[in-house]
Design a protein that fits this description.
This protein is of the alpha/beta class. It contains 10 helices and 14 strands.
Length: about 300
């Protein structure tokens, strides 16, 4: 089995992925500065094949020897989302792009990097036309731009598989309540109402367990290096209005109001084709309905101001 280095391992996806990697029999090294939830890896940390290092993924002296002894590198460390990146632009560039490029520079052709890009890099798509991996990228935020730049550096070197992740949703040991499905379900559960701006803007969605399983799939397919893949749930190219209708089915007292005045800060609007990754044998299988059901069970345990990036 492989030695796998995961930066940002204590984060939203990492705290789901690392236990799965340990069950698969891999040795895992996690580097995280614990800026969010310091206990999310408390149980995996006890595993004999898990090493937790409290540190910064931008630290070259720290990262160089860790990269050298790893078979697979998964750089999850990230300031995720346009609002957070706009709040600290220097850190967004340093963590989201420069640290990833450094991993590429320090790696060899025999090592595999599996990188989570974002399909927000497509920006605004054309009505009724699916964005696939050949669609020109047009990021409309600093977050999208630096993620796309990092992806290009990785693909140019050739030893990386990159996933253009759909908007992830679901429950994690490091919860995030600022992601759209999680956010709207929270509001429906506690506030029973939400106001929608640009209600018919669409995007694709992905359950967090399917995201983690996508990385596990890539570990087994190193021959796919040099490729980028959209990774989302194909039945979930949904508008905000359609998402609210799904939530309303499980929380009937929830109401949503559509405002014709005002606009969403996040202007993404596109539909995504996941045919390329599905053609290689991986298909996301967990529905948005399932994620909403799981969130409803977990939400009484969470406090919103604890679990949002901004």
């Amino acid at each position: 089995m492989a030695t796998i280095l995961v930066t940002g391992g204590a984060g939203y996806i990492g705290s789901i992925l690392i236990p799965k990697l340990l069950i698969d029999g891999h040795k895992v090294i996690s580097v995280d500065n614990l800026m969010y939830e310091p206990t999310s890896l408390l149980i995996p940390a006890l595993h004999p094949n898990c090493e937790i290092i409290i540190g910064d993924a931008r630290d070259r002296e720290l990262m160089k020897p860790l990269i050298e002894k790893s078979d697979v590198i998964i750089p999850l460390a990230c300031l995720t989302g346009a609002p957070l990146c706009n709040k600290d632009k220097s850190a967004a560039i340093g963590v989201n792009r420069d640290a990833v490029v450094m991993c590429s520079e320090l790696s060899t052709s025999n090592q595999l990097i599996i990188y989570p890009c974002t399909n927000s890099g497509y920006g605004v798509g054309q009505d009724g036309i699916y964005c696939d991996e050949t669609t020109p990228l047009n990021p409309i935020s600093l977050y999208g731009r630096v993620k796309v730049e990092a992806e290009k550096a990785l693909l140019d070197k050739g030893n990386a598989i990159t996933f253009r992740l759909a908007t992830v949703f679901g429950v994690s040991p490091r919860p995030r309540l600022d992601l759209l499905v999680n956010d709207f379900t929270y509001r429906a559960f506690f506030d029973r109402a939400v106001i929608l701006f640009e209600a018919d803007f669409k995007r694709n969605y992905l359950h967090i367990d399917d995201a983690a399983d996508g990385f596990r799939f890539a570990i087994q397919r190193p021959e796919l290096a040099g490729n980028c893949f959209n990774l989302g749930y194909s039945e979930a190219n949904l508008s905000k209005r359609e998402l609210c209708i799904l939530i309303q089915k499980q929380l009937p007292r929830f109401v949503y109001l559509i405002s014709e005045i005002g606009e969403d800060i996040d202007k993404r609007n596109y539909i995504i084709s996941n045919n390329k990754i599905e053609g290689e044998g991986f298909k996301a299988k967990r529905s948005v309905d399932l994620g909403i059901k799981e969130l409803i069970k977990a939400l009484p345990l969470l406090k919103r101001n604890q679990f949002a990036n901004i």
